[in-house]
C-alpha cells in the first residue's frame, strides 16, 4: 500500500530589529537567526610595501568597484601625490595607472567618487620638510578610473576660499564642500558645483537651520538625502554633537541627545581626525583623537532609532590600534580603513577590513522540505 502524508505548517515569525538602550553588540540580527561568525569582525589585510606606497596619514580613500584608491597624505617627512590601489578580491596592492598632470603633493584634501571619476579638492600643499611654500588650495582635479587621466578643472565666477581639513560629499550630481581651515581661521561655509555639463561654476549655499560651529578635521557621511557631520576641531566649541544637513531644503538640524535620559548609551566622546561611514541604516565612527587619547572602539548610530551603541568585535578580531587622520571607505558589506597616525606620531601602512553584520541565507525552504520525508512530523496518515 501507499502512504500519503499530509501535514500543515503554520508559522508566526515575530521579532524586533530595534537597537535597545543597552545594545552594544552592533547592528541587530532578526530574532531566532544565528549571528554569522564573520559579522563584526576586524581583519588586518596585507600591508602596503614601501616601494608601492609609503605609510601615511592625512590622505584620502575612496571605493570604486572592487578596489580602494588611496591618494596623497604625508609620510612624516614629505607630502605625497601618489595614487595607489588595493584590490579587495585578490587582496593585493599596486600603483594605479595614471596619465596627465596629477595634483601637487598635499594632505588634508578631500576625495569623492561620481560616476567613473574621483574628484580631489583643496588641501594643504608645500614643503613640510623645509617648512616653505605652505599654502591651502581650492583647485579641483578629476581622475578618470577608466583611462587613468588626471584633469584639472577650470572655473568661471566665484570660487570657495582655499582650504584644508574640510568635508566633501556628492549628492544630486553635485560636489558639496563644507567648512575646513583657511590658514587663519576655521570655516563653516558651504559651496557646491555640478559635476555634469560643460559649465564649471561654483555656487555658495545659503544654509538654514541650526548650523554647526566653524570646524575642521571632521568626517561627513551621506545617507537618506542628508549629510551628517560628527564632532571635529571647533576650538572651545568642540562637542560630540551629530548634525544633519538636508540637501533639498538646505537646512541643518542638531540631533538631540535627549534619548540618553531614557538610559540609552551616550554618543562617542568628542574627537577629531576620525572617520565616519554609512552602511545600511547605520553610521559608523572609528578612531580619532579624543581629549589626548586615541580610542580604537567602533561606534554605531542607528538612523531609525537615533541611538548610539558601541560595536563589540567578534572573537579573534584583529582590531586596529587607535589612530587619527586615517581614512575609510565601504565596499559591499565591509568597511576598509587605511593608514593614519598611531603611537608616537608613527604613520601606518596597514589596511584593516571590518565585516558588517550580514543576515545568513534563509534555509526555511530546505528545512521544511526535509519534513516531507520524515514520519515524525506527520499530522495525518492515510
TrEMBL record:
InterPro entries, alphabetized: Kelch-typ_b-propeller (IPR015915), Kelch_1 (IPR006652), LZTR1/Attractin (IPR051568)
Source domain of life: Eukaryota
Signal peptide: 1-18
The keyword Disulfide bond is annotated on this UniProt entry: no
UniProtKB keywords: Kelch repeat, Repeat, Signal
Pfam families assigned: Kelch_KLHDC2_KLHL20_DRC7
Cellular-component GO terms for this entry: Golgi apparatus
UniProt-recorded name of the protein: Leucine-zipper-like transcriptional regulator 1
Organism annotation: Culex pipiens (House mosquito)
Amino acid at each position: 500500500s501507499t502512504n500519503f502524508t499530509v501535514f500543515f505548517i503554520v508559522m508566526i515569525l515575530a521579532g524586533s530589529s530595534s537597537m535597545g538602550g543597552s545594545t552594544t553588540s552592533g547592528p541587530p540580527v532578526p530574532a531566532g537567526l544565528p549571528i554569522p561568525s564573520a559579522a563584526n569582525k576586524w581583519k588586518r589585510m596585507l600591508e602596503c610595501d614601501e616601494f608601492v606606497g609609503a605609510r601615511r596619514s592625512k590622505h584620502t580613500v575612496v571605493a570604486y568597484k572592487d578596489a580602494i584608491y588611496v591618494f596623497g597624505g604625508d609620510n612624516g617627512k614629505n607630502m605625497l601625490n601618489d595614487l595607489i590601489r588595493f584590490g579587495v578580491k585578490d587582496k593585493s596592492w599596486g600603483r594605479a595607472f595614471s596619465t596627465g598632470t596629477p595634483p601637487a603633493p598635499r594632505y588634508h584634501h578631500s576625495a569623492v567618487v561620481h560616476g567613473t571619476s574621483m574628484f580631489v579638492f583643496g588641501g594643504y600643499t608645500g614643503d613640510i620638510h623645509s617648512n616653505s611654500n605652505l599654502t591651502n588650495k581650492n583647485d579641483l582635479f578629476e581622475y578618470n578610473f577608466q583611462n587613468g587621466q588626471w584633469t584639472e578643472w577650470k572655473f568661471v565666477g566665484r570660487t570657495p576660499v582655499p582650504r584644508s581639513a574640510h568635508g566633501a560629499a556628492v549628492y544630486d550630481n553635485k560636489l558639496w564642500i563644507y567648512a575646513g581651515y583657511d590658514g587663519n581661521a576655521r570655516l563653516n561655509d558651504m559651496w557646491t558645483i555640478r559635476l555634469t555639463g560643460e559649465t564649471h561654476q561654483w555656487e555658495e549655499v545659503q544654509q538654514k537651520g541650526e548650523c554647526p560651529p566653524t570646524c575642521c578635521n571632521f568626517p561627513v557621511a551621506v545617507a537618506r538625502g542628508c549629510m551628517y557631520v560628527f564632532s571635529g576641531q571647533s576650538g572651545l566649541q568642540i562637542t560630540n554633537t551629530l548634525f544633519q544637513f538636508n540637501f533639498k531644503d538646505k537646512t541643518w538640524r542638531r540631533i538631540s541627545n535627549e534619548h540618553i535620559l531614557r538610559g540609552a548609551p551616550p554618543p562617542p566622546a568628542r574627537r577629531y581626525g576620525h572617520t565616519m561611514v554609512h552602511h545600511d541604516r547605520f553610521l559608523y565612527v572609528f578612531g580619532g583623537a579624543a581629549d589626548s587619547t586615541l580610542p580604537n572602539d567602533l561606534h554605531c548610530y542607528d538612523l531609525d532609532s537615533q541611538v548610539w551603541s558601541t560595536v563589540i568585535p567578534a572573537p579573534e578580531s584583529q582590531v586596529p590600534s587607535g589612530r587619527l587622520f586615517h581614512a575609510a571607505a565601504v565596499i559591499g558589506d565591509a568597511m576598509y580603513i587605511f593608514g593614519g597616525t598611531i603611537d608616537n606620531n608613527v604613520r601606518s601602512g596597514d589596511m584593516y577590513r571590518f565585516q558588517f553584520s550580514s543576515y545568513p541565507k534563509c534555509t526555511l525552504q530546505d528545512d521544511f522540505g526535509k519534513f516531507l520525508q520524515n514520519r515524525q512530523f506527520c499530522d495525518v496518515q492515510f
